[in-house]
Design goal:
By secondary structure, the chain is an all-beta fold. The protein has no helices and 29 strands. It has two domains: about 5-200, Galactose-binding domain-like (Jelly Rolls, Sandwich); about 225-400, no CATH class. The structure holds calcium ion (CA) (3 copies). One calcium ion (CA) binds near residues 35 and 37.
Amino acid sequence: MVPTVAYFNDFESAIGSAWASSASLNIATTPIGSRNFLGEFSNDTANLSLTGLPAHNQVTVLFDVFVLRSWDGNSSATGGPYGTLGQDVFDVSVDGGPTLLHTTFSNHFDSSISSTSTRQAYPQAFGDGNFAAGTGASEINTLGYAHPVLTTTPMDSVYHITLRFDHLDSAVTIQFAAAGLQAIGDESWGLDNVQVDVSNLPRNYVPDYTNSLVQPGPGNSPSGTVTCATCGSPVRAADGAATPTNTSTAFGSGGFGHWLGQLLTYTNGTGYTSDTANGSGNRDIMMPSLLQGDGGTIVATIGGADAIYFDFNGSTYTPRFFGTEALTYDSGTGLYTLGDSSGNQFVFHDFASGLPAGQRGQLQSIVDPAGNATEVVSRNADGPRRSGARKRLAVRSRPNRFSTVM
Ligand SMILES: [Ca+2]
Ligand SMILES: [Ca+2]
Ligand SMILES: [Ca+2]
């Protein structure tokens, strides 16, 4: 499922009924730029409650937090005219669920104001991070706020933050909160461009097959056990996915090029079962496919228990968790190419609306390290497979013109 935007508010018009707060809810306007946002808040909570969410297993919260005036970050210094400085903590949590963010911010970009207040925890957690004021900010001193006494010293910052968590219920409450702040005229905060996306994707499990993403290959047994170090068996505790290590081969063919056949594995893992070509819950390990995540992320699923996430920065894809696989996209051909650590290349169709729905993100060819290509050369009208339990692929291997029709 492509991520669905379940909520968005830039607070340019109305707050809406989804919000509740320990303080009064207001829309404020920045002195510079006249940007409307939800705030200002002090040591308050602001809760966003959503109901009627579509079926999903992940929620992503994206927002801008406006950090206003003299936040002191990790400093707990006391004395002087301002009393105890901090620490100035900002939290985001899920009601009845995990804490997503627990950190501190500092706006002391000018260390001459307070030499003790120039360090903050963000972008790490409070207690772990010790960074210069403004580290990770998307904007510094762009909003027009200043130190409450030294009024010619600008002090504001904007952080664009993305938080993701596993979640299944149709309702969710996300709590934003601050603690340890001094008076609201001295330190405050607000929210803008708050967005909540829901998606139904497999979680990121990195495959650890002994040879390559697709097994068996030439020289390997076409039946028996596929080793998957991250699977666990029979049920993976992390997400309850059944992960049998024994797979069954319906049929297959070796020869030149990549071994190709049907190697079925059963899964109940959410997100893996959108492919029903072999019947509900059955995934063919030999036919990896791609799914679209949020923010341009592409998820490659292999069988029913492995998923590799590739995050997109606007130009390149980077595998999560230091994965060794590589993903590139050619907009001219509309093809993604995934290279594994063994030198195999898996080519997939993109998600263009002009393609049949059943073809989007599906395998187009496999090129082994020796350059032998195994290609899908004919398709059913709705994509590479029929909706039933049989699939009909015509496969051509080069350079030996070996072909197999299954
Ligand atoms: Ca706004
Ligand atoms: Ca302060
Ligand atoms: Ca403070």
